[in-house]
Amino acid sequence: MRSRLRLFLPLIVTLGLGALLWLGLGNNPYRQDEAVAGRTLPPWQSDDLLGGVPIHTEALKGEPFVLNVWASWCPSCRAEHPLLSELAGTVPLYGLNYRDKGDAARAWLAQAGNPYRTVLADPDGKLAMELGVYGTPETYLFAADGTLLSRHTGELTKEVWQRQFAPLLAKARSKTPSLEQVRESKP
After folding, report:
1. Cα 159 from chain centroid?
2. What angle do CA 54, 55, 56 make, to 5 degrees?
3. C-alpha span between 111 and 83 (Å, rounded)
4. Judging by DSSP bridges, how do beta strands 119-122 and 93-98 pair with one another?
């Protein structure tokens, strides 16, 4: 009896692993993007990739903004770059240069154009790890107070922007007081 079980054990293990794989293929990997909504931007300081001056993530807050994780070596980052250049005029857009060489990143931005207000340098991937980055590109939409509203893993497209980000950005802007409102509320 025991020898027969040994004969069928590899088959049983293979079928079990196959069943787990089949169940895993049915999961939507982008569902994890929804799971992180509500978290806050981690406090962190980095050098500005272009200016070299230290910048703290607190400086990004104040109005709803987008944080785009990118690298010069990433083909999908290059593909989404024209859309980011379009969006730069409509929303504060910050970059997080992920595990990249500073010279290569600066050269890429000089060649393709820089859509970012500021680019945080993250050569070791420490901030990206705190954000929960899987890879590049990833795009995050934050409320004015730094609360994460939405995240997209992979190349950002116009369709994704319109479906996922634009409605949340409009809602966040309606909740953010204007500079005049802030001044009026002070005694």
Report:
1. 17
2. 130
3. 16
4. parallel
Estimate to the nearest angstrom the gap between the alpha carbon of 28 and the chain centroid. Answer: 17
Q: Where are the beta strands (DSSP E) in 26-163?
A: 45-47, 54-56, 65-70, 93-98, 119-122, 138-142, 148-153
Cα–Cα distance for residue pair 167/146, rounded to 1 Å: 17
What residues does 36 pair with on adjacent strands? Answer: none
| Burial track 92-130 (b if 16+ CB lie within 10 A, e otherwise) | bbbbbbbbbebeebbebbeeeebbbebbbbbeeeebbee
pLDDT at 141: 97
**Nearest by Cα to 33 from 186, 180, 163:** 163
Long-range contacts of 131-134 (CB under 8 A, 24+ apart): 131/41, 131/42, 131/67, 131/69, 131/96, 132/36, 133/69, 133/98
What is the value of pTM for the model shown?
A: 0.78
Q: How high is the mean pLDDT in each 10-residue block of the chain (187 residues)?
A: 70 69 56 64 92 92 97 97 96 97 96 96 92 93 96 96 96 76 51
The residues pairing with 56 across neighbouring beta strands, listed in sequence order, are 45
Cβ-in-10-Å burial (0-12, 13-18, 19+) of 152 comes to buried
